[in-house]
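Reading a protein record of the kind used here takes only a little practice. An example makes this concrete, so a full record is given next.
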Amino acid sequence: MSHSQLDQLIIMANQIADNNHLDTDAESVEFIATHIKKFWARSMKEELIAYAKEGGDKLNVLATQAVMVLSEQYTSRST
């Protein structure tokens, strides 16, 4: 995936996080992670997970937490 595509993934993840604040941060993180899991292509998720694991400095806090939840889910499923 090119750098500009990664930039777009970061923007989209941050927008999802910015627009989905629920009662608690934990609920928000779970919602964001579920949304990305359901609607993003596997390659998109993998690219964002790799970016977050490398530091993910452009992701906001909730987006980072959601991506790390996804990472744990993918690791536990061995996919």
